[in-house]
TrEMBL record:
The lineage of its organism: Bacteria, Bacillati, Actinomycetota, Actinomycetes, Kitasatosporales. Residues 29-48 bind DNA. This is TetR family transcriptional regulator. Residues 6-66 form the HTH tetR-type domain. Keywords: DNA-binding. It comes from the Bacteria. Pfam families: TetR_C_21 (PF17926), TetR_N (PF00440).
Length: 189
């Protein structure tokens, strides 16, 4: 039976995803990733070069999945925020992973900057406004979609309502707030 490097890479990415979600980049241990893969530690360095590069590969893979699940709709930021909210509820580890990235690597890569500028320009073009306003609207929509998972459960549901009902109400509030933002910040075309 031959060695399957693509299967090893897939196992390493899966184990690294779990490790980085739990411990962040600084707290993650290559030994644990290799053990949980299962693979040898040298495979991480052979395929990814470093723990930092492995973290980047995990982030890229998760962001690609998110982009496939939630198509970007610059002309309807409210629907985009609602779809992002749904995706984050479905995969809360993505929020945690991006929080670790923001805490441990606050600088934006050239690719991240380009992706956000492209999206902000698409928002600006769709709404007949400038890039700065498009970026403001995009960042506020992203923040609204993520806010639920940034808040401790006791705070986001202080009355102890049925969790699913509360989740649905919050989703509606995300959509309504982003819609109001869009109408307030950007003119109607």
């Amino acid at each position: 039976m031959g060695y399957d490097s693509s299967a090893t890479r897939a196992r390493l990415l899966k184990a690294a995803h779990q490790e980085f979600v739990a411990y962040g980049l600084a707290g993650a241990r290559v030994e644990r990733i290799a053990k949980n893969a299962p693979a040898n530690k040298q495979a991480i360095y052979a395929y990814y070069g470093s723990k930092d590069n492995l973290f980047d590969a995990v982030l890229e893979a998760r962001i690609r999945v998110l982009a496939d699940v939630v198509p970007f709709t610059p002309d309807d930021l409210a629907a985009y925020a609602g779809a992002l909210f749904d995706a984050f509820i479905e995969d809360p580890d993505l929020i945690r992973l991006t929080q670790w990235k923001t805490l441990e690597r606050p600088e934006a890569s050239a690719e991240e900057l380009e992706a956000h500028l492209t999206k902000a320009q698409a928002v600006a073009d769709a709404h007949g406004t400038d890039l700065e306003t498009g970026m403001d609207a995009l960042m506020i929509a992203l923040a609204a979609a993520q806010a639920w998972l940034f808040t401790p459960p006791a705070i986001r549901n202080p009355t102890g309502d049925d969790e699913e009902a509360r989740l649905n109400r919050h989703r509606a509030a995300v959509i309504a707030s982003v819609q109001a933002l869009t109408e307030r910040l950007m003119p109607t075309k």
